[in-house]
Amino acid sequence: MKVIADPTNNKWLTLAPGVTRTPITDMVIVALEPTFAKRQHKATVTSILRKPEDQLRIIREECIKRGIDKEFPEILTCSVDSISNLKTGVYAWQGAWSRLLNKGFIVSPPKAAVVLFDYWKNGKNKKGEIIQPSGHFLGTCFDIGGRGGLDDTPADEVEIISDAMAGNPKIGIRSFLLERKNNCLHINVG
Length: 190
Fold this sequence. Notes:
The chain is α+β, with helices and mostly antiparallel strands.
């Protein structure tokens, strides 16, 4: 198979160790390299392709960091398909995941699931709505983590991505979302 674009050669927008690449994201990451180089701004792609089990691991880790595992201990041992209530079909991880959203940590579920608690987004309470699983499962998005140093947030990256999109509307970016509490910039491609 011929490699069309290879971001492993990038010097400014690099890949974190262990990131699983996809051809569509490779093309966009390589296309962004000159914009990051022009700004002399180093940044790291922290995630591209993930499996539902990877998403559950992220949810579990964030629940432990925030003490949500004390309220929902099942998050420590459940699997993606574990059901806690057969009558309602609620997943064993759904309460903990919903609590993360409730506390402002944006993370997609490992499977389509209903939000169980208040979760405000764009002025609307999403409680009771079904949230679809992450675009990371399809490999059609990637995250750029906030850089270290004086500015450890992805705010600079937002400006760089906006400039890249303005300079080349066909760069392959459909949209992006600043995930402040996740300290990343989520970029949808295609």
